[in-house]
Amino acid sequence: MECSQVYDSVKDYYGKLLDDRNNQTCVTLGSEVSKTVREAVAAIHEEVTSKFDGCGLVIPEKLKEMKILDLGSGSGRDTFILSKLIGPEGHITGIDITEEMVAISTKFINYHRKKFGYKEANTDFVQGYIEKLREAGLKENYYDVIISNGVINLTPDKRAVLKEAYTVLKEGGEIHFRDVYADRELDCSVRKDKELWNECLSGTLYWKDLVRMAVEVGFSRPFLVSAATFVVNKEDFQRKLGDARFASVTYRLFKLPSDTDFAPAQVTYKGGIPDHEEEFKFDVKHTFKKGNAVTVTGAVAVSLKYSRFSDEFVFKPVPTDVNGTDGHKTTPDEVDLENPFDYLDKQPENGKKAEAS
Length: 357
Ligand SMILES: C[S@@+](CC[C@H](N)C(=O)[O-])C[C@H]1O[C@@H](n2cnc3c(N)ncnc32)[C@H](O)[C@@H]1O
What we know:
single chain
């Protein structure tokens, strides 16, 4: 499909989907979800929730008073959950290409403003392309956090999305997003299949391409936050896709100062992030327990030091010749990458948390 055909097809598909969508498949909350988040999820209007079309929750930590952007906000479920979590002093904008999606999410702004007891709404929605955020009127170097749930696979120009996201994020800002990835480059015939595209399958990136693109655009290396097997149930889809495997993966990437020295550091979590007082799970490799000093790579150290997590840690330099830990010097493109498929293979319980298409 040509790019313009992809956009028309996506708008048509998601516009119509609203009529009959009642998605309850991916909304089960795991035991690790905090009371604050559960309450926020429970407060969302049922019509918005029933038209949710992402997978799982995309909720980074420490959101109070943040300025947030939701790429491909759909009916607005995640946007409104975050509207609650950022509080009245924060602000969240959702952007979506599909007119009907923007209309339905906008319809519920006032409902959630009242529900959360806010004098002014802290949410808005704009219609636009996530590949052209500035053309849609969004400001450069402005957002603290960008989230997205099940959207980037649908765009024909993933690099443009990452580039624009980088431009509108503040220095130290984070893009935290969940999407479907493949364990390989998909065949051209699969890529051109309209039905597979709209079902979030044929537009998926090979996970290594995401890592490469992110670093080329200027982001930190992507940190793997969580992954679940994405099961393809339909037989005709399976036939077309052959042996390819898919996973629904959450990554976090940071916009770091360009002149950063990526030296390793000893970091100690102070326990100040609400709902994560005892420990803070940064990614699948790093769960920081309150008061425990750990040596981390330069990539992790600078991501903590220049982001909103900076005040939550005590940082100490370590000698660069430390042995037996991951205290070696790393740069964003130096690979210590987590393959989500290897990760899943090593985590049988994650395989059970499969998400189906
Ligand atoms: C799978 S749905 C996910 C919606 C929402 N994030 C959720 O979790 O319910 C994908 C959404 O992305 C939007 N979308 C797809 N391509 C887009 C693009 N290039 N720019 C903006 N929005 C896009 C679609 O209109 C649709 O609402």
